[in-house]
Write a structure and sequence with these properties.
By secondary structure, this protein is an alpha+beta fold. 25% of the residues lie in helices and 18% in strands. The longest helix is centred in the middle third of the chain and has 20 residues.
């Protein structure tokens, strides 16, 4: 799945190569990826001149003279700038330009190509609810975003409404660089740990951003990203040694997703307010001495008759005798 490094790279490439081009024709092979009818989509963008391209989270925004073209690559795909006479084998949407080049869009799964009028961009629900771009958030703002949060840190990082751009590809290394277990709750963080997480985000995303994204995605020219598998620290490296301590990386279940962690560098610390209970459980588990029980009452031996047979005792009356 393309995340901030890939989307930011594609937006940068599109801004460089497409700005100033005019769309002469739009072809739609997959109408379900649109937010309006194919007829309306075509009429809205045909004849439009491209003014510039930016990104927000996992969405690409291309400003045109007739409104906005919005692209979300979903689970992956290609955005390729090609000669109009040499279309790629697979494509879903094609934007043909006046200079006889074409932007061919292909989705693997769940991609979107939307249109929004300039005056209604803030009404585009899928992008309007996004949190700030994660790479652009200053430390002070990041502290504010985490204040009063109580959930697991991984869930927070993946929630695009809280902070936009991180997915399940880069989150593993981000948390490893921060020394945080994915299930640690935010309300247990110290100030230093918040700063460590902010630094982990910067260090976990910028190397890939500098290399045009991950190796499994292609750029606007068809070349693979320069961030390779060997550059990944713990993500998807189950059984490999931790690059910091040598402990084996393990794969664990974290809610609906899996996580890759170093169990030594990313311990799951005690949750706030449960210290006493945890200590009690540990003591009991380690076999500590149990508190002495009050001495049991000695049983009076049964009386025996002269024949040696036990004599039955009469039940004590429950009524008090006067």
């Amino acid at each position: 799945m393309p995340e901030l490094p890939e989307i930011a790279s594609r937006a940068r490439e599109m801004d460089k190569e497409l700005t100033g081009k005019t769309i002469t024709k739009v072809e739609v092979l997959q109408p379900k990826c649109l937010n309006v009818s194919p007829k309306k989509f075509k009429s809205a963008l045909e004849g439009a001149k491209l003014l510039g391209t930016t990104y927000h989270g996992k969405w690409i925004f291309t400003d045109t003279t007739k409104g906005y073209l919005l692209i979300n690559m979903g689970m992956g795909g290609e955005l390729l700038l090609v000669d109009s006479k040499s279309m790629p084998e697979k494509w879903r949407i094609a934007f043909h330009f006046k200079d006889r080049t074409t932007l061919a869009v292909n989705f693997w799964w769940f991609g979107y190509t939307h249109y929004a009028a300039a005056s209604k961009l803030d009404k585009h629900t899928m992008s309007a609810k996004l949190g700030p771009n994660v790479i652009d958030v200053a430390l002070a703002e990041f502290r504010e975003l985490l204040s009063k949060r109580k959930g697991a840190v991984k869930s927070f990082l993946l929630n695009q409404e809280r902070i936009a751009g991180i997915g399940n590809a880069y989150v593993h290394d981000i948390l490893f660089l921060a020394g945080l277990h994915p299930l640690r709750t935010i309300d247990t963080f110290t100030d230093d740990e918040v700063e460590a997480l902010w630094n982990g985000i910067q260090k976990g995303l910028k190397p890939s951003l500098r290399r045009r994204g991950a190796f499994y995605e292609r750029d606007l020219y068809g070349k693979r990203g320069g961030f390779k598998m060997k550059d990944i620290l713990v993500g998807y490296r189950e059984g490999k040694p931790c690059p910091s301590c040598g402990e084996k990386v393990v794969k664990i279940k974290t809610g609906s997703t899996a996580s890759f962690i170093c169990p030594k560098c990313q311990p799951l610390k005690q949750k706030k307010g449960t210290g006493k209970k945890v200590v009690k459980k540990v003591v009991k588990k380690e076999g500590a001495k149990k508190p002495k029980k009050s001495a049991a009452k000695k049983k009076t031996p049964a009386r025996k008759s002269e024949t040696g047979k036990p004599v039955k005792r009469r039940a004590a009356s429950k009524k008090k005798r006067g």
